[in-house]
């Protein structure tokens, strides 16, 4: 193989060969210096939000004429409803006492019933075991008393009110038989 000799490069061709890499190196250095200056600028403005520098008072036009409203009018201010006052629950009044008077006991083939008088309105009622009267359940009815129950509270209504002095005769089993007070009947015991 034969070597071919080339003529020596001229000054212009040398500049072309070596000048391009020099320009690239200079551009790279300029970019590095500019990036370093940008870091200094970021330390001056720590907020990354580009809108943080805008004064909110200068944006009143957007509030008064919204872009996405068909009428471009300001929406009405929100109406705040007054907070309703919470009414205190009514205090529970104690239930009215049942003012019943047992007038008598009626025995039928269907069972035993009690004839009672409500003293609050002077009405008469016939009650049987299991009946309800103003929330009171009739538990039992016998010849001597009627037993009512309401929420564990028991009320006993005797047929006759016992008196201190017994007006009656002794029964064979030793109990005193009470006689009803028949006022105005003229009957003597």
TrEMBL record:
Highest taxon of source: Bacteria
Q: Where is this region: Disordered?
A: 38-96, 152-189
Q: What is the designated name of this protein? A: Type II secretion system protein GspC N-terminal domain-containing protein
Species of origin: Ferranicluibacter rubi
